[in-house]
Amino acid sequence: MLILGARDPAYREITSQADYLGRRRFLHLAAGVAFAPAAGGRFALSEPQTAKKDATSYNNFLELGESKEAPGENAHRFNPKPWTVEVGGEVDRPARFDLNDLLKAFPLEERVYRLRCVEAWSMVIPWIGFPLADLLKRVGPTSRGKYVEFITLHDPARLPGQRNPLYPWPYREGLRIDEAMHPLTLLAVGMYGETQIPAQNGAPIRLVVPWKYGFKSIKSIVSIRLVEAPPKTTWGMMQPGEYGFFSNVNPEVDHPRWSQKRERRIGEFLKRETLMFNGYADQVAHLYAGQDLRKDY
Ligand code: MTE
């Protein structure tokens, strides 16, 4: 697989990295931070992008309300500044990053990814971010760091949905270390050409794992920890029979209450066939060689 080269150069040096790769890439400046656009590159997608107004008004973000419209309507209540992310656990160099330092530390790039929700709807979203692997390499996972745990900010004053006692706050998610280190796994800090994420989409930093159901892509992250055993996840705690740790998009394994064979692409009329690993099988199927994906759902 072609992987972008060494990550050492700062984001301002993206042009020379692009020259090295022999690609037509340009610096984009929006909200003051440069990123390498996906156009024509390996992370572009030929399917049409979902309209920005749909991606920012039809959301799942329980911390800002339970309906699809509530997160957009309540977005003004969530100010994501200042923001720090703790990276620790089984690592050689635990660190606390201010969001602005993260934006400077890693070259930003645009990735156009499909997002498939477990509820059988989907979108195509142009994210801006950097591979989670870049951050993990910076802190140096130890040999005991077999899984990665992610935690959302817990602050009911800013995220009023956290007053709802039905859920075990804060929202948590997890990945196996090889999934976390995979080049597709992105920490997004922007979308639709702007290096800023709207509150309802998980400001100011969220995970995007495009071959898994959307609930794995945890929003508004404050803690990333390397751990030895599979971490607890919000939906795994709530309904273990319905939401497994892996939650790879798989049209052959139905949700106990509905089929996963097809999906409604937001903005389209006819339903689409759901693709194995959400269309990323060439890149990720090897991670699960020898696993029974009916058992490891
Ligand atoms: N992260 C947090 N903290 N809280 C949530 O409720 N919902 C998840 C995921 N991340 C959720 C979350 C679900 S179910 C989906 S489908 C995606 O976010 C939706 O992302 P989007 O609103 O940007 O499309």
Explain what you see.
The protein is of the alpha+beta class and 297 residues long. It has one domain: Oxidoreductase, molybdopterin-binding domain (Sulfite Oxidase, Chain A, domain 2, Alpha-Beta Complex), CATH 3.90.420.10. The protein is 15% helix and 23% strand. The chain has eight helices and 13 strands. It has helices at 14-21, 52-55, 70-73, 99-105, 132-139, 177-180, 234-238, 281-284, and strands spanning 28-30, 33-35, 84-89, 95-98, 109-116, 121-131, 147-152, 172-176, 186-191, 206-208, 221-227, 262-265, 272-273. Strands 5, 6, 9, 10, 12 and 13 form a six-stranded mixed beta sheet that branches. The protein has a five-stranded mixed beta sheet with strand order 4-3-11-7-8. A hairpin with a 5-residue loop joins strand 3 (84-89) and strand 4 (95-98). The longest helix is centred in the N-terminal third of the chain and has 8 residues, at 14-21. It is globular, with a radius of gyration of 18 Å. The chain starts with 13 loop residues before the first helix and ends in a 13-residue tail after the last helix. Ligand MTE is lined by residues 59-63, 115, 117, 152, 171, 201-202, 214-215, 217-220.
